Amino acid sequence: MSFIKTGHVDNFTRENLPPRNQWPWLNQEFIDTNYAARLNASQELIDKTIEIVGPNKLAIIAGDGNYTYGELLAKISQVANYLESIGIKSGNRILLRGPNSASLVILWLAVLRVGAVAVTTIHLQRANELEKMLGVAKVQFALIDHRFMEDWNLVTNFDGQTLIYGGDNDVFVKAAAFPTSHTACDTASDDVSLLAFTSGSTGVPKATMHFHRDILAIADTFSKEILKPLQDDIFACSAPLAFTFGLGASVVFPFRIGATTLLMEGAPPPVLIEKVRENKVTVLFTAPTAYRAILKSTNNLELPSLRRCVSAGEHLPESTWSSWHEATGIKLIDGIGATEMLHIFISASDDEIVPGMTGKVVPGYEAIIVNEEFAEIPVGEIGFLAVRGPTGVRYLNDARQGVYAVNGWNVTGDLYLKDSHGYFKYQSRADDMIISSGYNIAAPEVENALLTHNAVSEVAVVGEPDEERGMLVVAYIVLQSSQVESPELIKELQDHVKQKIAPFKYPRRIVFVPSLPKTTTGKLQRFRLKVEDK
User: Fold this and answer.
1) The pLDDT of residue 434 is above 90
2) What is the CA radius of gyration of the chain?
3) What is the spatial distance between Cα 44 and Cα 406, in angstroms, rounded to a whole number?
4) Does domain 12-418 have CATH number 3.40.50.12780?
5) Where are the alpha helices (DSSP H) in 47-170?
6) Bridge-partner residues for 418, per DSSP?
7) Could you state, in order of their start, the residue ranges of all structural domains in the chain?
8) Three-class secondary structure of residue 439 per DSSP
9) What is the third-level CATH fold of 433-529?
10) Quick one: which of 62, 85, 320, 514 could link to 102 by a disulfide (CB 3.0–4.6 Å)?
């Protein structure tokens, strides 16, 4: 199938899509049935929703303001008009840096509205991490929360325009002078709207490219068929909007049907549960780590408003599922998704849930289990998970496209088995990705950060099972001959990593060793350092 005529003036993203013969198979019947050739995701999520629920329906509850859908549209329109006034063109890449807030959502939707491409980042990422993303995405503009300028100011490879929101020189103050109506850019449904970064198992970031229709597809598959949200629902999610899990849960799913979203800048488990009570949240998204922490932090889990709880980002143990169900009466909805696929593609809800199983394929998707030769294997045998549907991997100018997209399928890097009833059960990761507290952490990235410390001669980083976090980042370090092991050195190394990369990636445990296991050719064997699952 040929491309639809683009609505972009700047054709960078379309020109840097993978060749069509490297794309996975797409569920074209689903796409053709549900999406017009020309659509803008911002317009679909706000303007079209207002036609259903009206302008006075509450859309956002947040520390920086509550907004009805009508107020939200007016604010988005002002920002969109301002962005166009300073020369932003459709197809330009705009980086967003800030914690979850009403302001960030408004900016994200305004970026899409003018036909630009949102490049979402985590506000805790350091300058060297941001530089890698900028090198891939060729960002021309950046919208930065004024409180998180320190690391941004250390970036050396950005020569575009920085726009600050909050504090002095506020984008929103400037935008307030512009009209409260705006005609959305006439984008094609297959114009790129979002670049979402995933670190990958090598630590080199990959930009996943998502169309305007893809943003809607995750709402029209997982949300519609499994979550089954209601217009009266109030959503809450602990994940940042820079994670596609958080973007779907906090923006796309509620706005697609006209529900309300609660946005929190930071929500450790005790705070999260109080926010649920205070705001009468009905749909909660967080990682298994948070559900376990909530269970341990309080004896009062009477949450009468909650009707849906979703767990994703890491493996959900059956024990966690059972403990949550016993304490709350709510059946946790498990799910596996991927940044490459945008959101969840295997899940189950209500009476379809089988504790210990991730679930069945979400309608619109297909999944199989294959061996290393890519032959489908019998029921009950462990192999590689391969999936396809209306969304699929498209890396921005990255040779690893051919590793993830194989024979028309998306190969996620997860080991699974499928039972005779069509349920999929998680076994482990097949690569060096560490999934800790819902965060994807690439072992080589942590190793590279440690190697910049003058005490470190060699290092190997692995994930080890942990009851609280799912996996724990553990570093095995060979010190320089002049160095002496000490608790002070461990802390120094941990603090060093926090300064080099996002703090959540630091090794929680450091083990000093005389040597690292290697092959006869000198290749590091991380698997020999990993402990067995208990």
Assistant:
1) no
2) 23
3) 32
4) yes
5) 47-53, 69-85, 102-113, 127-137, 149-152
6) 424
7) 12-418, 433-529
8) strand
9) GMP Synthetase; Chain A, domain 3 (3.30.300)
10) 62
